[in-house]
Write a structure and sequence with these properties.
One of its GO terms (biological process) is DNA damage response. The protein is an alpha+beta fold. It is built from four helices and eight strands.
């Protein structure tokens, strides 16, 4: 009987030891990695608008449509495809101005603001498009947005650099702790980031520009990851 009790006591001690070992907190090294890639933009988009006002509603529409139609025809002539010219807004309303002398609103006319985006696949055509806008009476432009066509490819390159950066940090921390790490136990992409379009805004209105000379520069594509290593 005594031998049986002793054996049970040893078994209980062994089970207790295993449980304690399982409850021991896991040691983890967590690092963040960052990577970036620079690229020269190869495409652009420009937002244009045509604003017309006339006491006669139909005249306001006709004047606006004439300017837009002529400009679009010019764009097609220089190689911009019809699918790359997209209307973004079309606002038609009565316009009023406030008279401080009379203390009331004065009817100015019917106003039509037609806004549209032009996508330019050949970066060398940007200046030509802007110059054609001036020649054809386009009244507004809020900027040139440069971007890249191979977004996914560039982002994946930046992502690889982010992982390499995180691995280097983990190795340095492990060496400082006198620990050994292997492959990461967990890797999390810290937000998806495609190349950020860079907007170029003009200080002068389109109507005041004699010619357009644009420098697209470079875009920086960034990626980041969070990595966990056990030791």
């Amino acid at each position: 009987m005594k031998k049986l009790i002793a054996s049970l006591f040893i078994v209980l001690l062994m089970i207790s030891g295993v449980a304690c070992a399982q409850e021991e907190p896991q040691r983890v090294i967590t690092v963040s990695g960052a990577g970036e890639v620079s690229a020269v933009p190869d495409q652009a988009s420009v937002n244009f608008s045509v604003d017309t006002v006339n006491k006669n509603a139909q005249n306001a529409v006709d004047e606006n449509n004439a300017i837009v139609s002529k400009f679009k025809a010019t764009l097609l002539d220089i190689g911009i495809e019809g699918k790359d010219i997209k209307t973004t807004s079309y606002n038609f309303f009565k316009d009023y101005d406030y008279s401080s002398e009379k203390g009331e609103r004065i009817f100015v006319g019917y106003r039509l603001v037609n806004s549209f985006e032009v996508k330019i696949d050949e970066i060398d055509d940007v200046a030509a498009v802007l110059n054609k806008a001036v020649e054809n009476g386009i009244t507004g432009m809020n900027g040139v947005h440069f971007s890249v066509s191979n977004r996914e490819e560039l982002y994946n390159e930046a992502l690889k650099k982010a992982v390499a950066n995180g691995s280097q940090k983990a190795e340095s921390l492990a060496q400082a702790l006198g620990a050994t790490i292997k492959s990461p136990a967990r890797v999390v992409e810290s937000g998806y980031a495609v190349p950020i379009e860079r907007a170029v805004y003009m200080e002068k209105s389109v109507a005041a520009m004699d010619s357009a000379v644009i420098s697209e520069g470079e875009l920086t594509i960034k990626a980041s990851v969070t990595m966990e290593y056990t030791y």
